[in-house]
Write a structure and sequence with these properties.
Blueprint: H1 14-20, H2 29-39, E1 49-53, H3 59-63, E2 69-74, H4 77-84, E3 91-95, E4 108-113, H5 123-133, E5 134-145, H6 152-164, H7 182-191, E6 198-206, H8 211-218, H9 223-230, H10 234-251, E7 256-266
Parallel strand pairs: 1-2, 1-4, 2-3, 4-5
Antiparallel strand pairs: 5-7, 6-7
Length: about 270
């Protein structure tokens, strides 16, 4: 039986993301692999300014050397309050809409958007704002998931949750995390004046035999879906766990795959 009426109707609202990030998930092996792939593609030198848009608590910025100037921007206040309390003075955190950043033109040497592209309501405006704040020659990195069949580490859990909780049934006009194609992203960036990006493709595999082993990997990869599971009534969580356990048994020890793309371009 499907329960939980239409919470994603406010998907783009600040209140939605405040709820999603109310209780942060620690990064698992897969999330660390995504982070490491991004760190390897963004050049930085002492004194360079690196901006993470829709940053959350930004493990990316926290992993950068302290001789860089790090700026995180997020619509949601909840993770910013947490991260401000434990980072050094050369890291700044601002609550802001990605389409209206409170930064001067040509401020950043690099901008990253990790696991966020599909969550912006106006991609053209976001791309134009990124182009405005980047300095000439600055680097832009955009992370997107690859095709859904190559991301079983996410889709197995998301599909199981959606079977019980209709909060994961997207209303019309809401993009899913696997909807972005390379051609569509390149066209949006071209509209903001960026040259064609270079594409880098990465894969990771993880084996989980039980829901207790699976959820810690899933949670940081799909925070909206995990929040629907986390905040569900106990009876629904039990049902989801039973269904997931059966699916994991069918995997018979085979690893769950995850594939992602990094688009890198310059201003």
């Amino acid at each position: 039986m499907v329960r939980g009426l239409g919470a994603l109707m406010d998907y783009y609202a600040r209140s939605h993301w405040d709820t999603v990030h109310d209780r942060p998930a620690a990064p698992g092996h897969a999330a660390r692999a995504v982070l490491d792939s991004a760190l390897g593609l963004v050049p930085r030198t002492p004194g360079s300014v690196v901006l993470d848009i829709a940053c959350g608590e930004s493990l990316f910025l926290q992993a950068l050397p302290h001789d860089t100037l790090r700026v995180g921007a997020d619509l949601c206040a909840v993770p910013l309050r947490r991260v401000r309390a434990r980072t050094d003075p050369l890291a700044g955190w601002v609550q802001a809409d990605a389409g209206r950043l409170p930064l001067r033109t040509a401020t950043a040497d690099a901008v990253v958007l990790l696991s966020t592209w599909w969550a912006f309501p106006d991609l053209d405006r976001t791309a134009a704002e990124v182009a405005r704040v980047l300095r000439p020659g600055g680097v832009l990195l955009v992370h997107t998931w690859a095709e859904a069949p190559t991301c079983r580490l996410i889709t197995l859990g998301a599909g199981t949750i959606a079977h019980v909780r209709d909060t994961l049934i997207r209303p019309p006009g809401i993009r899913g995390p696997f909807a972005t194609t390379e051609a569509e992203l390149a066209a949006t960036l071209a509209g903001a004046g960026f040259p064609a990006p270079a594409w880098h493709r990465f894969t990771h595999q993880h084996t989980a035999s039980t829901p207790a082993e699976y959820w810690p990997e899933f949670a940081p990869l799909a925070p909206t879906a995990h929040a629907a599971y986390r905040d569900a009534p106990p009876a629904d969580r039990d049902t989801i766990d039973r269904l997931l356990a059966r699916l994991l048994i069918r995997q018979d020890g085979a690893p769950l795959g995850l594939t992602w793309r990094m688009a890198v371009t310059t201003r």
